[in-house]
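WARN  no MSA supplied for this record, continuing single-sequence
INFO  ligand: 4'-deoxy-4'-aminopyridoxal-5'-phosphate
INFO  echoing inputs
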Amino acid sequence: MTFSNIMDSNSYSGGVSTDPETDELIQARTHLLGPAYRLFYERPVHLVRGTGSHLFDADGARYLDAYNNVVSVGHCHPHVVAAITRQAQTLNTHTRYLHEGIVEYSQRLLDTLPGEVDQVMYACTGSEANDLALRVAKMYTGARGVIVTRDAYHGNTEAVTAISPSLGGATTIGPHVRTVTAPDSYRAGAEVAARFLADVNAAIADLRAAGHGVSCLIVDTFFSSDGIYPDPSVLAPAVAAVRAAGGVFIADEVQPGFGRTGETMWGFTRHGVVPDLVTMGKPMANGLPVAAMAARSDVLEAFAREVPYFNTFGGNPVSMAAAGAVLDVIADEQLMANAARVGTALRDELARLAADHPRIGEVRGAGLYVGVEMVTDPDRKTPDRAGAHDLVNAMRERRVLISVCGAEGNVLKVRPPLVFSMDDADWFCTEFAGAVAQLPV
Ligand code: PMP
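INFO  complex generated
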């Protein structure tokens, strides 16, 4: 989520509606919540119900959800709802009492991670998980310097907004933070990994010269807010350089994790790296606030010895039941294979459309995470913010929900629930072809 981009191009604090009931709701919300809250689309959507990858508004109209990754196993999945209900009817406490739920889930979660990553701690948001990971990295390395990508988003606490340049505006990037250009394979081509490594090396040198030392490199392993860059060759050399400088690697899996990219459960696996710390959240419990930081126990040790950790809601029995049910559904419904199959078909069809439309510069992604880069000039690859904005709103009018990302707000972000079917992909492509046809060439 790139607030600076979304705010500029596809997010509205007010919104324009045509029906009085929606206008009233918008006004009440603005009055009560204040201007920090944003809505998507020029004509905001008021949803009342969801199932699978479909959503319904107050008039019963059906929308195709091609955006929401939190509900990754589908809106209101009955298996997850039943697990939550059962546990909520039985017991909900916290981690200072013994409970089997957290132990069983932790074993299952760690079984999906590389053997070296062997312990896990729980939180309620991705922000908290990243905040914790920064503390652990600092304690382990004794250094403070952090390397992030130029349009990264890692959350909303003070410590993680300091490493989230995509927030722009009033947000201050910390003096201990250095940014590197995201691996934009569309523009850098075969040079992409070498350029990324050179940037990371420059950041390492700069942090050392400033006396901060190197604590960590933290990246979203799909570079979501930077613009969706799936090239799997870029991370391994950069991670090796950071480790050689005494730092650790934190894989922020809040967006790519839990099977979104199809072939693997975790985004870092595609890059052939084993992280020191892994943070996760969003799709972890299909909408319940559940997040975690998994770690190599040797990296965690110094922090765990010094700091007694408690998170009132993190890892509670209801959260663990929900998270376990999500793992059940991913396996039972073979959602990673579905993401790979439907995602490939979707990208292939979008690439066919792109061939006829010069304003679509590139279609990229893996599994059910697709970026469509809009450009005004395909030869110069000039970002087309206005075109992306128009398309997102045209799709909304066609009742298909997407958004944008990237420093220039010109990359369409297509990131549906993993239950997205071939029929959903057809529906998407039909509406997308219609919306693109109406763009001025
Ligand atoms: N990291 C990444 C990569 C994210 O996309 C987000 C949320 N957009 C976060 C961290 C923060 O997660 P949360 O909103 O749950 O605090």
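The radius of gyration is 21 Å.
INFO  checksum written, moving to next record
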